[in-house]
């Protein structure tokens, strides 16, 4: 599994909005400048976050984006799954139930299932608020 630029940038946007949360809408330009990400690229990511209810967006003067809920309610897993899709390390784990014709005899399936379970548990155990604290506390990130 490889997290794309899109996934990494989505997390950076969520962290930035959490760290600068005053209840007001934050202009896209401000986020782009602070995070050194092009506005154009952010314009391709933010609609997905807004449509999913992660962000509130407002157009026009005084507009921008803000978190729709407290930073503690967003997990890294929820953000990454939204923009990246599944964490499944192999295609057969994308379907429930597993429809692979070799599911009953696959010797590697238990290994892939365990990896998938660990990835989900790891990313669902970290919130945007945790990442904000990590930054504020100089990298003392513990799960």
Describe the protein's architecture and organization:
The chain has a domain at 5-85 and 127-136: Arc Repressor Mutant, subunit A (Orthogonal Bundle), CATH 1.10.10. The protein has helices at 5-19, 28-35, 39-51, 76-84, 109-124, 128-136, and strands at 55-58, 64-67. With 143 residues, it is mainly α. The model has no long low-confidence stretch (mean pLDDT 90). The two termini are 20 Å apart. The protein is elongated and about 60 Å long. The chain contains six helices and two strands; from the N terminus they run H-H-H-E-E-H-H-H. A two-stranded antiparallel sheet has the order 1-2.
CATH class of the domain at 5-85 and 127-136: Mainly Alpha
Structural class: mainly alpha
Low-confidence stretches: none
**What is the fold-level CATH name, i.e. the topology of the domain at 5-85 and 127-136?**
Arc Repressor Mutant, subunit A
Percent range of helical residues: 40-55%
- CATH architecture assignment name of the domain at 5-85 and 127-136: Orthogonal Bundle
Kindly estimate the percentage of residues that lie in beta strands according to DSSP.
Answer: 5-15%
Main sheet: strand order? 1-2
* Count, helices: 6
